[in-house]
Each structure stands twice: as C-alpha cells, then as structure tokens.
Design brief:
Number of helices: 3
Shape: elongated
Order of helices and strands: HHH
Largest sheet: none
Distance between the termini: 28 Å
Radius of gyration: 16 Å
Strand content: under 5%
C-alpha cells in the first residue's frame, strides 16, 4: 500500500535512543559470545523485529518522498 508523503515524515527519524543502541550492541556482543540468557534473547529479538518493521516503513516512506518530489526529514541519528 502506498504511503502519503505527509505520513511518511513520521517514519523517517529513528525511534531508537543512544541508550537503545548501546543496549542492542551489548545484547549482540553477548549473543556472539553465546552468553545470552532467555530474557535477553527475547529482548534482542524484540529490537530486531522493530528494526525490521521500521526498515520496511522507511522504504515505503522513501518511495512516497520520491514520488512526491519532496525531501525526507533529516534523521539526527543517521546524518
């Protein structure tokens, strides 16, 4: 389903804070070491699922911007 450019602006900035990014890195490091406990695995899976959904939404937003000729808002977390 196409996304309207007005709605697309909502999905461009990242919703993850610096603390979220730090926690994700910590969980990924523990995962690579094989040291995740079940609750941490569920937490990491949640982050991954959210990131996947946002990736698809960002793709739709970029398509909406491209079709409308408008520019997306700048993401302060990803210049």
């Amino acid at each position: 389903m196409p996304m309207a450019p007005d709605g697309a602006h909502i999905f461009c900035p990242s919703i993850f804070s610096e603390a979220d990014h730090a926690r994700m890195q910590e969980l990924m490091d523990k995962s690579n070491e094989g040291a995740l406990i079940p609750g941490e695995k569920a937490e990491l899976d949640g982050y991954v699922n959210i990131a996947n959904v946002l990736s698809v939404m960002h793709s739709h937003a970029r398509t909406a911007f491209r079709k409308s000729g408008s520019a997306p808002l700048r993401d302060p977390h990803n210049p």
